Amino acid sequence: MKSSSTTLSYSDLIDPDASIVTKILVMMRMCLPPLRSNISSMKFRPTALIVDLFGTEAMAVADEFEMLKYMFIATNAWYVATSIYTPIVEEHVLDDHTNRKLPLKIPGCTPVQFKNIIEPFLYRNDPVFKWYLSLGMDMTKADGVLVNTWEDLESKSLEALRDTKMLGHIAKALVYPIDLFARLVGLPQVFRNYSVLDWLDKQPAESVIFVSFGSGGTLSSKQMIELAWGLEMSQQRFIWVVRPPSNSNASGSYVTTEKGPARLSDYLPEGFVNRTHKVGLIVPMWAPKAQILGHPSVGGFLSHCGWNSTLESIVNGVPMIVCPLYAEQKMNDAMLTEEFGVAVRSKEWS
Predict the structure, then answer these.
(1) DSSP assignment of 20-44
(2) Is the pLDDT assigned to residue 135 strictly greater than 70?
(3) pTM as predicted
């Protein structure tokens, strides 16, 4: 029998089959005691605490130490607007959106079409949707919200968040666009120590399509095979960041590595690597995405629509083929294809 003083580990607290959101929230909750202890022990305490959308419980720690509290949202202002507005929406409006598939109208913003629905809306009886509602309410309690975007890109949503006749009276907190990725153009030579960049140096200008599904995006076995055949039949130069498929979870690579075949030949079509080696480069698990997108040989990006990938592609002027997988990526898809005009949607993606 465990003693009462035994320290619980992450694996003791979480079901291995729990959603990625639940897993991250548990990990963040485990960080609260050491965060409180470290701040308490500081001779000169910080005046502000910045939390991300999974760390809002730490805002209570900021209150304990009379610190300012800011939220950093790594995705776009349209998502922030939707999150802030959803907790005050009447139940029948949510029913219309999730059951009758009607657009969710956000004051001052582009309506969210059902085809672009944010994932938690599909499971309104699930704890993840309750977390999403609490996220929106927590945003209104912050002293400021830092959003990973810039004025010219999302002026409509940012204006709605500031205008008291639209969302400003709900948001209350000041919203600051911080355009992190606008500073990535022109990376110094020290970041070029990657063999994939040497391979790109040998390719013609704008001749390579870069295929990557972000830090956690994971394809199913069927999607993996179809993508491989598509790349081969296109006879297009490509770089493909490959990780083992997951048939259960499109975000399966975030917290744990899917146990599965370790060799490329186990999940790619037989002979694919040999047949494409003159035009393609396969990179296992990870590649320097920002540096690849900034290379003059890259002419296109097949992407999952993660917001960081989106901004890196935009600042480097690389057009996209978008294949959203999870979270708010269908909203990103809509912005890129229908509003910004910098991407096309894969009609066959499912």
Answers:
(1) HHHHHHHHHHHTHHHHHHHHHH-SS
(2) yes
(3) 0.87
